[in-house]
Amino acid sequence: MRSNIADAISTFFLEYETPRQVVVKNRRVGVVCRLIQLIVLVYIIGWVFIYEKGYQVTDKAIGSVYTKMKGVGYAKVNGVQRVWDVDDYVFPEQGDASFVVMTNYIMTMGQQQGNCPELPGKHSCQSDEDCEEGDYRRGGHGKFTTLSPNLQAESSPEGGFPLHGMLTGKCVSETKTCEVSAWCPVENDLVVPDPALLMAAENFTLFIKNSITFPMFGIVRSNLVKRVNLRKCVFHEDEAPLCPIFRLGDIVRLSGFNFQELAVQGGAIGILIDWTCDFDWDRKHCLPKYNFHGLYGDGELMSNSSVGYNFRSAKYYMDGTTEKRTLMKVFGLRIDVVVQGVARKFDIIPTLTTIGSGVGIFGVATVVCDLVLLYVLPKRDFYKNMKFKYTIIDEEKPVLQMDKPVMDSDKE
Asked: Which of this chain's residues carry glycans (predicted)?
């Protein structure tokens, strides 16, 4: 027993086994084998190593964005000219990666809380019976919906535009509309100015300051490149692709929109700053690329739906003891600055992993050719005998039973 165990251990540690190989001279099988190996080789070198950079490790960027608008616009409404600067047309305050630049507006001045008639077409009436006190009308000519205790209006199936306040139960004979309790006079937003009042916004400029860091590699980069003169440059896709100062009209154009059309109702635009860097080369080659995408529609405004981007903003003030406000319905361009970054660098571990997986894929050629040899070709039985060596192990002979001892009782 001990000698058998020693022989087994000696065989395991001191002997080497190699698979048996059979050289088959067959043109078809040889061509198929080399063709498959060539395809695998092209895949490993071309796709895995060159395109997918399988020899590198990858790190994602952590970035920050600071924005700043510049420009002054003039708008003339009802013969009165008004100056608009950055503090007037940018919402919210400067610096955010997401903000709105006003291009058009509807201004309602001197509003104060009280009772006043609704706009024509909002809720027409002939008598007080047509104006149920406390009701809130959701649609232009649809059903009434009663306000809930928390003063939130319930939606009506008919949809449409809501009233500006709560019905008081009175029909105003001068306007033939119901009286509402609201901020008076009510806002008239039925007609949107066209062309936009702030067309000067096309020449406003946007400055974007972006910094990113790649934690794995300990590298920090900024979009403020030394060779770019910030005092003179304006971004151009061919002549000045690294300048971080953008003309608003160019942003809209590169997003696939027409500024004159988009300025009337507003819209949404995304600015993508892409950092794709290869740190196998000098880090000075790690530079941003700016891409512009329209986030609203397909560039054509649809007249049968709620189009554009708008919101309301109010500025409150006191007129003696009376609180008043100036209400602005703002139409503008919502701009979202998004940063994405991926950096790569050579590392021995992914390189060895990629090479090992590539060598394993080469085994596909052997498997395919073996299947052809053993199951497709006419001489498949011959190839089976050449590839496999069959050994028949004799069964062990049964152990002979010993004769039973002769007992005294048996002698008798």
From this structure: 203
Identity of the residue numbered 357: S
Q: Which residues contribute to the annotated binding site for ATP?
A: 68-70, 205, 310-312, 329
Give the pLDDT of residue 377: 77
Could you report the per-residue pLDDT of 258-299, keeping only the tens digit for each?
899 899 989 999 999 999 999 989 888 999 999 999 876 554
Which of 3-17, 119-133, 397-411 holds the top average pLDDT?
Answer: 119-133
What's the length of the chain?
A: 412
The model's pLDDT over 142-170, given as tens digits with 9 standing for 90+, comes to 333 333 333 333 333 333 446 678 888 89
Instruction: Return the H-helix or E-strand segment holding 344.
Output: strand 322-346
- State how far the Cα of 163 lies from the Cα of 182, in Å rounded to an integer: 9
Helix (H, G, I), strand (E, B) or coil at 128: helix
> Which DSSP helix (H) or strand (E) runs through 145?
strand 144-146
Q: Please give the sequence-ordered ranges of beta strands (E in DSSP) within 192-266, or none if there are none.
A: 205-214, 219-222, 245-247
What is d(CA 372, CA 391) in angstroms, rounded to the nearest whole number?
A: 25
Distance of CA 358 to the CA centre of its chain: 33
| Residue whose token pair is 């009308």 | 137
Judged by DSSP in three states, 258 sits in: coil
Mean pLDDT across the chain, nearest whole number? 81
Dihedral over Cα of 22, 23, 29, 31: its sign: positive
Extract the annotated binding site: 68-70, 205, 310-312, 329
The three-class DSSP label of residue 278 is strand
Residue that has been written with the tokens 């994405």 in this structure: 340
Alpha-carbon distance 345 to 217, whole Å?
A: 8
**Which residue type occupies 33?**
C
Sorting pLDDT into bands at 50, 70 and 90, what band is 137?
low
* pLDDT at residue 291 in the model: 94
For 307, how many CA atoms within 13 A lie in the half-sphere containing its CB?
A: 16
Q: Which amino acid is at 16?
A: Y
Q: Which amino acid is at 24?
A: V
The encoded tokens of residue 113 equal 């809380």
Question: Does pTM surpass 0.85?
Answer: no
CA 298/CA 303 separation, integer angstroms: 13
Helix (H) / strand (E) element for 112: namely strand 98-117
pLDDT of residue 139: 43
Q: State how far the alpha carbon of 330 is from the alpha carbons of 79, 111, 194, 255, in Å.
A: 20, 17, 14, 21
Q: Which two tokens stand for residue 171?
A: 């029909």
Task: List beta partners, residue 328.
Answer: 107, 313
